[in-house]
Every structure is written in structure tokens, then in C-alpha cells.
Hints:
mainly beta, four-stranded antiparallel sheet
Amino acid sequence: QVQLVESGGGLVQAGGSLRLSCAASGSIYSINVMGWYRQAPGKQRELVATIGRRGLTNYRDFVKGRFTISRDNAKNTLYLQMNSLKPEDTGVYYCHAVMDWGKGDYWGQGTQVTVSS
């Protein structure tokens, strides 16, 4: 099993920055892809960005050029650097881990990000 704990959310003005962290523990060596998702009030959860074990990244168009996903395997931590934040970036941000060999996936409890206009 894997436990994921997010931190770093908060309230920020439009144009500001936040850095989210996700600390992983447990069977971390079996983690393949990690990612960040978000869910705005009244909307479905959506993918923001992913990163593979070797660092290959993928971003949704609406965050390209503003957000950067990174992964420190030595510290077992996933990051999301968010710059030029917009009010529409508001939501609960979730850390996600996909295990090797179809062994399932795990979610963190989420961290709230609120961007004021």
C-alpha cells in the first residue's frame, strides 16, 4: 500500500504562485506514474499533469507554461509549482499514484487552492 499526503495549498491572489507537495510512504518503489488532479466546486475531477518514474512529464493545455510538475525520488515527494495563478485554478488538488503491473492506484486526501481575483 501507499500513503499520499498533500500540503502547500492556500489562498493566493491572481498572478501569484504556490508550490504543492505530496509526500509518499509505504510501497513507494512500486510507484510508476504520479500526477496531480484537481476538482472545482460542482465540477468533475480533472487531470492537471503527470510525471513518470524517469521524469517524462505531461500537462493539460490549460496549465502549460504556468505549472511545473517534478518528482524527487530520493525524498519520495511529488511537487507542483504553480505560477501565474488564475481564479479558475481554484479547487481541491489531489495527488495520485499509479502502481506497476496493474497493482492499482492511490489518492491523497487533497489540499485546497483558492485564487482570488
